[in-house]
Amino acid sequence: MGCSLHVAWNDGLTSYNFGPEHPLNPVRVELTMALSRELGVFDAPQVKFIDAEAASDDLLRLIHDPGYIEAVKRAGKTLQPDTPYCLGTSDNPVFPDMHDAAALVSGASVAAARAVWNGETEHAANIAGGLHHAMPRNAWGFCVYNDAALAIAWLLEQGAKRVAYVDVDVHHGDGVQTMFYDDPRVLTISLHESPLTLFPGTGRPDETGGPSAEGYAVNVALPAGTDDARWLRAFDAVVPPLLAEFQPEVLVTQQGADTHALDPLANLTLSLDGQRRTYQALHRLAKETAGGRWVVLGGGGYELVQVVPRAWTHLLAEVAGVDTDPQAETPAEWRRFVRERTGEVPPLYMTDGRTPDFTPFEAGFDPDDPVDQAIQATRRAVFPSHGMDPSL
């Protein structure tokens, strides 16, 4: 039997919808849930669905300014831009009942955190969550409310002393970092494409935390073109040693699938197989460093048919401890549903057929390799704050 998993779900989670022309289309979530069902991931006895309810205003105020919450409500009713709050932009267009939709996503992530914190399950997931860019007083980068930060803030309110947040989205987890930048109870680690080439232009290795939390903001800024082997090398060189030292009570992860080579908004070149190996590594680290307490959120991913549904189905299967064959064909019924729902040609197999591997950073530093330069810059910036030696 695999690990216990609670999936926070409500069909209303697909109502977080900026419109058919916007990159963040909820069909990716719909297709993920359909593929996971067809593959039997949700049939495992250790998997349970839990209902998601919208976060209350009091709950949202743990991280968001009251004036901003009211602005979101107004915008969702009047459909008028509220530009001081970055509402009504091309990234964050207003849509009907926007507050309700965004609050539901946030509530689902808190429900997942609650299930883990209360000991109801080892792992919990909100695949519609991971809206990591939203700031305390404004929308940002397709994100209205920051459900990831809210789940962490809720855990702190319950008395958690150490929460680790690992963000593997191709974009820097800037909103979560901002909200806990001076709080040593929260270790934020973000691996992302360099701010020199990608939104939001932050996440440099010298962003290491405020005066009370020096070294608790960790950023690995990877060059465009980074592939499976180099990405996994960077992950292995930074994330496991920091989590082993920090020993979080809960691990929260943001699992954006936009590191894939086919993603239209970014420039890394990972495969589904490389992403799958990341899920395995995070699962192992949750067990080794956080007593198995793992809250899993979705995130970015803009290749809506070819990448996100397969990536997140592998993620949910990994979290549940359900074996999936990477060489398997996608179910015929799911392929039919994809054609009907999107008009696109669905993928035939569950992964890209790669066998990703990497050489550990400890085997030797190459000063001419831009990925090794990024790894070394991060280790030098934060390892000493944790009493760790950044050298090889």
Write the layout of secondary structure elements.
Layout: E1 5-9, H1 27-38, E2 47-51, H2 57-60, H3 66-78, H4 98-117, E3 123-126, H5 147-157, E4 163-167, H6 174-179, E5 186-193, E6 217-222, H7 228-246, E7 250-254, H8 272-289, E8 294-297, H9 308-320, H10 332-342, H11 370-382
Parallel strand pairs: 1-2, 1-3, 3-8, 4-5, 4-7, 5-6, 7-8
What ranges have pLDDT less than 50 throughout 5 or more consecutive residues?
Answer: none
Radius of gyration: 19 Å
Number of domains: 1
CATH architecture verdict:
3-Layer(aba) Sandwich
Helix % is 25-40%
The CATH superfamily is known as: Histone deacetylase domain
Within the CATH hierarchy, at the fold level, what is the topology? Arginase, Chain A
Organism: Nocardiopsis mangrovi
Pathway: Ketone degradation; acetoin degradation
Protein name: Acetoin utilization protein AcuC
Family: Belongs to the histone deacetylase family.
Describe this entry's structure for a reader.
The protein is α/β, with parallel strands linked by helices and 392 residues long. The protein has one domain (5-50, 103-386): Histone deacetylase domain (Arginase, Chain A, 3-Layer(aba) Sandwich), CATH 3.40.800.20. Helix content is 36%, strand content 11%. The protein has eleven helices and eight strands. An eight-stranded parallel beta sheet has the order 2-1-3-8-7-4-5-6, sandwiched between helices. β1, α1 and β2 form a beta-alpha-beta unit. The chain is globular.
Brief rundown of the structure:
This protein has 392 residues and is of the alpha/beta class. It is 36% helix and 11% strand.
